[in-house]
Input
Amino acid sequence: MTHVAVRSPLWALLIATPLMLAAASPMPMSPQASASPHLSHPADLIADPATGEVVPSVQPFDLDATRRMAVKVLVGGQGPFSFLVDTGAERTVIAHELADRLGLIEGTKLRLATIGGSATVQSFRIAMLQMTDLQMTGFEAPAFSGRHIGAAGLIGVDMLERRRILIDFRKETMQILETRMRARPIIRDDDAIIVTARNAAGRLILSDARLDGKRVDVIVDTGAQTSVGNLALQKMVADRRANRLPFVPTTLTAVTGEAVSAARTAIRRITINGMDVNDLPVSFADSQAFRALGLVDRPALLLGMDSLSLFDRVEIDFPNRRVVFDLPDRADRQALQRMASNAAASGG
Output
C-alpha cells in the first residue's frame, strides 16, 4: 500500500502544562475500566413542532483548547444538558451535581479504573437518556464531579455500540447514524484510509498500527483531548535511535481530580494501515486504564482529539469494527507540513 503522511503541527503543545486528560471509562466492579474528562460546547436538539419529540439532526460542535466535543441530551425528559461524546468510555457517566439537581435515586457503588488508579464511586439510576434519535433506558450511570469531567456527563460506547459516528472536523459537525453489518463506509473518497479494528470491552482497537515495524494497539478516543501512551510504548519510543526529541515532564488530571505525573514527547512516525502520522505529541503514564483493557505489556496508544482533528472526517463504525480516516487534500497536507516545519525551526 502507498504510504501517505499526515504531519502534526502540534509539537509546540509539549511545553503546555498542566494538561487535563484521563483514561477511558467506568464499568462495574470487575473487570475494571476507566474514565476521561472532556470539554466542548453543546449542540442543539431539534423538536418536532407537532409532537414535541426530539428528531434526528446533524450535531454541531466546537473544538476549543481542550479539543473535545459535546452534544445536548435529555435526562429523564429534562434538559437539555451538555454531555461529551467519548468513544474511549465504556459506560455513560453523569455529573454528580446534575444527579443531585434532578433528584436521581442512588444505584450501586462501582469500582472504576482511571488514568491514575482506581476508585469506588456512587452510581445513579437513569430512567431514560435521549440524544436526537438515540436513547437508553433503565440503567445506572457512575457519577463524577462536573468540574472534573468538564460537562454534565459523557456518552459512552454503551449508547454507541450499535451505531456509527461521522465527525466532520472542517464543518465542525457530527452525526450518530444507524448502521448494519457489512454496511459500506460513508466515507469513500480516493484518499480515505479504512482501518479494521477489534473490539475490547466495547472500545475499538485498531489492528494494523506499527512503530518501526513493531505492533502498537491504538484506541480511538474522542473523549481524550490529547493522545496518551502506556509505559511499554514509552520504552519503545525511548529506545528508538531516530527519536531525538526530549521527554518533557507534564501532569494529567484524572476524572477523579487526581493529578498524574507523566512524560510528554512527540513520536516521529507511527504508521496506521499504510498512513504515516508524523510528529505526534503523546503523553506517557502508568495508567490503570491500560490495565483494565489488558494492555500493560503490549505497546498501546489512546488516539485523542488532537490527532483525530488532523483529518477532514473520521467515521467510527462500531458494529463493523471499522474506522475510516478522510485525509486532507494535498494543499491542506502541505500546509500542515509547513506548520510543523516552522514549529520545529522555532524551537518548538
